[in-house]
Batch of 4 targets.
Target 1
Amino acid sequence: MSMIQFENVTKTYGDGTTAVDGLSFEVKAGETLTLVGPSGCGKTTTMKMINALIPATEGTISIDGVSIDDCDTIELRRSIGYVVQEIGLLDHMTVAENIGIVPDLLGWDDDRIENRVDELLELIELPLESGKQYPSELSGGQRQRVGVARALAANPQVLLMDEPFGALDPITRDSLQDEFLEIQSELDVTIVFVTHDIDEALKMGDKVAVMRNGDIVQCDTPKTILSDP
Ligand code: ADP
Ligand code: ADP
């Protein structure tokens, strides 16, 4: 069953730049696809189209078998978690409030939100007391973990991660990668993970799609790519 499907998708921006050019791929339910390639090859544009933040110029994008043209955009975005490099936690809100933003928007009652926040703090291995802290009191790595927890809060079907660990020092990045791989096995979510770092792509993906100039030039398992001369 394919959770995300691109069929011949092209995106040309208003200034004439074609950022994505005839792109086709699918991500099966529960799978992690990493998109890897140099800056400017169209990774972020691809992510923004999955989330319906920008429309495709041509082609069809389907989520869980439904064309996003036929989806309610607000509902679609709520079923998709998005983690970016500069995580954008709200500084005037506590960690718990930040994690609870989407459940709150969805009208969950307070007890349910509180339970979910505690569950997620445990998942990202922060002490429950951290829920009362403010983002400025956390380290960069902890803030990035909170960003992941916030994206997962309402049990999204799809998790988009755009250079999620890109702003961290190499040691913190490495440990967050390892932690995330552990969490992943407990989650029932389909992931697209963007990076320009081939080592990270091979480590994090069930499948790795190599992008150049707005299209995928190779898509395989890490094992196959590593054995390819
Ligand atoms: P990546 O994430 O791989 O760095 P992007 O998707 O951000 O690539 O960008 C792909 C191409 O589209 C680049 O040439 C970039 O300059 C261009 N681009 C991105 N966003 C816009 C925009 N809003 N308007 C015009 N061109 C854009
Ligand atoms: P990334 O670091 O993800 O590759 P960029 O630095 O390419 O992102 O772009 C940052 C922001 O600027 C994005 O929102 C992108 O859409 C926009 N952008 C990038 N290139 C252009 C461009 N040539 N014209 C207009 N906007 C652009």
Target 2
Amino acid sequence: MNRKLGFKTIRYESVTSTNEVLRKLAEEGLEPGTVVTAKVQTQGKGRMTRKWESPEGGLWMSVLLETENGFDNEKFGLLPLMAGSSVATAIIMEYDLEAGVKWPNDVLVNGKKVCGILGELLTVNEKQLAIIGIGINVNNPVQKGYDFSSVSTSVVEEFGKKVKLEVLENTILEELNFRAELLETKDYDKILEDWRNLSETLGKKVTIHAPKEKITGIAKDIDENGSLLVDTDGRIVKVIVGDCEHLE
Ligand code: BT5
């Protein structure tokens, strides 16, 4: 990694999506390590063309990541995991809240989704880059008024008062830099172990809503590429993509 993530930050009032803006800028030659933030996103993106609600008060940011020796495509699944661990750790450090990670791309506080992560790959001048999009409900309450309200939360609703977005952003970037170094040095085991320690999914009964099937069983572990290993009556099924529903 040539530059530290966050060595430069471009701040916008309002954009469609920080991931989209960062992708455009990256295609025009923006230096890896740059971060894009926006106060509001009008077309925030979730996975699989879903919408991500992004009103003022949340932390909406995207980070352009490059690895010196090229990014190993197989390890793409580690990006949301390392971003999730970074966010959960930052929330614990700053606010002492009960934060943890849910496979594959969520951060929970007190069991509810506070943050979603969207990792994307792109190639610029034959170089593989990755965009890590991080969306956190911070000073924007979400426990009323949305169709996802019953399963989501925000920092302000859990912590009881408004917090400074820059403080959270800086701590997340420090945490993300630490894990990006591990990615660079191919210290994948440490990335996995760190995620396991913060995991709220492992050991639970889950239903995975995969693109073509539904799988129910006990979430046993993650493999070396971040796929979830689910024990369905003694048979281990590997899940690469899907939504995970905690049943307990
Ligand atoms: C995610 O997708 O959780 C990835 C979200 C990534 C958002 C960041 S913000 C910065 C960057 N720029 C972008 O455009 N995106 C990234 P997924 O797991 O598919 O979850 C999407 C689902 O979460 C939606 O279908 C809703 O049900 C729910 N949802 C939408 N907005 C939410 C919010 N603000 N808080 C909690 N849940 C939300």
Target 3
Amino acid sequence: MLDVRNLEVVYDDVMLVLRGVSLTVPKGAIVALLGANGAGKSTLLRALSGLLDVHDGEITKGSITLNGEPIHHLRPAQVVQKGVSQVMEGRRILGELTVEENLRVGAHTRARQIDANLERVYGLFPVLKGRRRGVAGYLSGGEQQMLAVGRALMASPEVLLLDEPSLGLAPALVGQIRELIVEINKQGTTVLLVEQNATMALSIASHGYVMETGKIVMDKPAADLLSDEDIKEFYLGLG
Ligand code: ATP
């Protein structure tokens, strides 16, 4: 279980961006984190991945624990080693390397499992297997997104953090990504899904959180969020 308690994050020593965020991702679940641009979703993911430093951000209060063990003081590579892997928004793949080289880069911390993980990723994304010796920069947007997810899975994460996986994808591809998240979860990986596409996220999540200006303003079973007309209109833009 991944647990965030009363987390405060400040950028540039002064700008308070997370104002006491608490959130729980139970083992085996898919949890959706929703909210408008600027609400603080990416900041929370950076905090979870140990990536605040590079953005001049820091945790000033609260804690992040994985199965009871604090992880908020760890460096990014240590967080991955503990079992939390993030798929970056914007598909930050290495365009000049081949597809398989990109996947192997993701595996650097768990060398023994590389072959099994490659099989898992190629099983989930057969299109990547077909193009494994091809240069990643030539993949389509949807394929690059798959490669970004595949790369995160190469670290055998217990918890996968997904930042806007449907961003910029055509509706048909959004459906594919949705099915893949369900499949990855069925294979035993816990998922925290950050999405602007609230309908997609809530359709596969068991629980949803809505963030607004650095705070959690809604915390409910996904089905309740989807069926409440007021919430849909005011918080999710689905009215
Ligand atoms: P988006 O979907 O646009 O990424 P978000 O919900 O993920 O939005 P954040 O990117 O976490 O929101 O941004 C939350 C707030 O923190 C915003 O007001 C933003 O301007 C500010 N912010 C983000 N990164 C930094 C930074 N490196 N330095 C200072 N302020 C930042």
Target 4
Amino acid sequence: SKKRGFVELDRVSKIYGNKDVKIVAVDEISFSIDKGEFVVIVGPSGAGKTTVLNILGGMDQASGGSVWVDGEDIAKYNSRQLTQYRREDIGFVFQFYNLVPNLTALENVELALQICKDPLDARQVLREVGLRERMKNFPAQLSGGEQQRVSIARALAKNPKLLLCDEPTGALDYQTGKAILKLLQDMCRERGMTVIVITHNSALTPMADKVIRIKNGTVSSMELNEKPIPVENIEW
Ligand code: ATP
């Protein structure tokens, strides 16, 4: 059979609506990502970026096409398989952290690990993201950047195949956002983890190994950076 990318979307579509109204959110998109790549998906509002990420993460189902992840077409999964995939194989990082407010940082990470097959040590991962002293704090006692670090620890502790980040700096100031992107880039390099980051900001594209530009639900252009720039060296 054909050699597939670690992640490979093959003519994936997503159509919302009913018989009268059709919204084509994703329009036969195809792209491929290697294991360990740091990928930036960029494009205007409404282009379909979040829909693509949600399909890749098993949070939404494609209307058509194939979604290959590590040799499996998850577009063919039933809902039970998709739930297991989402729990065990995918780490999500969102713009607004989505922490449980009445649990500490440590408890937020441990909660996510209860439904996971092969978790890492929650305390160890919290130390790695720089929260050694903050584990017993509740989300409201943490800054935005610290809360995002908890959410990254929660995702990383699952030891996922894919780390999917939807506008992870969207709610943060410039310096804090930069530190978060540096953390994501470091995690990609140190662990050889495949990381995909959605952003509106095209000034960030030099940090990526691969840039996928999405417009009107499909790829408008793609570029490879042979020498991606460390986040801390980018000004935007
Ligand atoms: P943004 O940068 O604003 O988040 P995006 O590139 O992530 O935009 P999507 O959120 O994927 O774009 O949306 C793509 C298109 O699909 C938009 O026209 C949006 O209105 C539409 N859409 C997304 N989700 C739904 C839904 N559940 N029902 C109907 N239309 C939807």
